[in-house]
Amino acid sequence: MFYEPEYAEQASRLCQLGATDEELAEHFKVCVRTIYRWRNTHEEFALAVVAGKEHADARVERALYSRAVGCSVERVKIFKHAGDPDPVYAPYRLHLPPDANAALQWLRARQPGKWRNTEEEKEDPGVVEMFEKALARVADYKSPYASSLPTGQPPGTGQPPGKGPAPVPAPVYVKAHARAARYG
């Protein structure tokens, strides 16, 4: 599909409504790479998409701010009584209290140095740090079975020296060609 100049205005309106590049591609019946190509080759299309997305982002910012500090919204309830021919419209004001999560999200976006999440600061440990932590845990480990063994007894036997369990014979491996000859 070839680019048409009126696509810039359509893209701007769609982006103002929150459309993504994938949704633009679906609207114009092209693949996403074509949208990227149009943005790189047609300046008016690129500017329209950026302006539309900035408008949508600003709208979301205003909504997040309103939710963070609390706001009042004008609403209307509509009642229809059985005997009345016309409905009754009752305007009222709905107060939405401040939302702590929205406030925290707003502050993290506006002042990341002051309100950053400490869990996000931690980087994944490297191999050396992981081994050092593991060795430190092993060095402090005390086996619950070590205290029940008498002194002089080999660990893991549970029997006095010289009276341990019978030794386990080593496994016998049969070569593949011998096994095939034996079992056909």
Q: What report would you give on this structure?
A:
- With 184 residues, the protein is mainly alpha-helical.
- The protein has a domain at 7-69.
- It contains nine helices and two strands, in the order H-H-H-H-E-E-H-H-H-H-H.
- The chain has helices at 7-16, 21-28, 32-41, 43-69, 100-110, 112-115, 118-121, 127-139, 176-183; strands spanning 71-79, 88-96.
- It has a two-stranded antiparallel ribbon.
- A hairpin with an 8-residue loop joins strand 1 (71-79) and strand 2 (88-96).
- Helix 1 (7-16) runs parallel beside helix 4, helix 2 crosses helix 3 and helix 3 (32-41) crosses helix 4.
- It is extended and about 95 Å long.
- It starts with 6 loop residues before the first helix and ends with a helix.
- The mean pLDDT is 81.
Keyword list:
184 residues
Low-confidence stretches: none
Order of helices and strands: HHHHEEHHHHH
In terms of structural class, how would the helical and strand content be classed? mainly alpha
Distance between the termini: 67 Å
Number of DSSP helices? 9
Mean pLDDT: 81
By DSSP, the count of extended strands is 2
Overall body shape: extended
Portion of residues within helices: 40-55%
- Roughly what fraction of the amino acids lie in strands? 5-15%
Largest sheet: 2 strands, antiparallel
Q: Strands of the largest sheet, in order across it?
A: 1-2
